[in-house]
């Protein structure tokens, strides 16, 4: 969830590049930033698809009431999602971070100065990369 709707997740990255691109006067930089924004949206799709696959079956089990309450809570806890996320979003990705905090435009720190924004982008990409590396190291799911 962090990489989907967190401060350094894919949605924040896409919006950061998108707002920078729209505000850019140089045509070449504008095109590059908008292309990167589009690529970040494709990353958002990949992360969202992974979240949905990891929670596969949750929606049906919640909707059909096939399990007893205690079993449902155990299943929800085992999936790594909160009860709120599972019940509200049915196992699909939500625009929130791993703590359930809703995504906010306050994550976007574009300043309209290419050198400042580039440094910020590099730092944000580095923060996202380290989280991906940590997630890879703790998963045993071969599909992920």
Structure, explained:
- The protein has 144 residues and is an all-alpha fold.
- It contains seven helices and no strands.
- The radius of gyration is 18 Å and the shape is elongated.
- It has helices at residues 2-5, 10-22, 27-54, 58-64, 69-78, 83-89, 114-138.
- It has one domain: Ferritin, CATH 1.20.1260.
SSE arrangement:
Elements: H1 2-5, H2 10-22, H3 27-54, H4 58-64, H5 69-78, H6 83-89, H7 114-138
Helix pairs in contact: 2-3, 2-7
Radius of gyration: 18 Å
Distance between the termini: 14 Å
Count of individual domains: 1
Output the CATH class name: Mainly Alpha
CATH architecture: Up-down Bundle
CATH topology-level fold name: Ferritin
**DSSP strand tally:** 0
Helix content: 55-70%
Give the H and E element order. HHHHHHH
As a percent range, the share of strand residues is: under 5%
Q: Which stretches are poorly predicted, pLDDT < 50 over at least 5 residues? A: none
Any descriptors?
single chain; 144 residues; mainly alpha; Ferritin; 7 helices
Describe the structure in brief.
By secondary structure, this protein is an all-alpha fold. It contains 7 helices and no strands.
């Amino acid at each position: 969830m962090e990489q989907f709707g967190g401060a350094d997740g894919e949605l924040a990255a896409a919006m950061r590049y998108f707002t920078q691109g729209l505000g850019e006067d140089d045509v070449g930089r504008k095109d590059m930033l908008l292309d990167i924004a589009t690529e970040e949206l494709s990353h958002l799709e990949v992360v969202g698809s992974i979240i949905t696959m990891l929670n596969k079956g949750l929606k049906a089990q919640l909707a059909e009431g096939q399990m007893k309450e205690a079993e449902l809570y155990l299943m929800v806890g085992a999936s790594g999602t909160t009860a709120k996320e599972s019940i509200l979003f049915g196992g699909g990705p939500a625009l929130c971070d791993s703590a359930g905090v809703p995504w906010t435009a306050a994550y976007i720190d574009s300043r309209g100065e290419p050198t400042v924004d580039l440094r910020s982008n590099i730092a944000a990409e580095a923060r996202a990369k380290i989280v991906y590396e940590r997630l890879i190291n703790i998963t045993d799911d071969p599909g992920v």
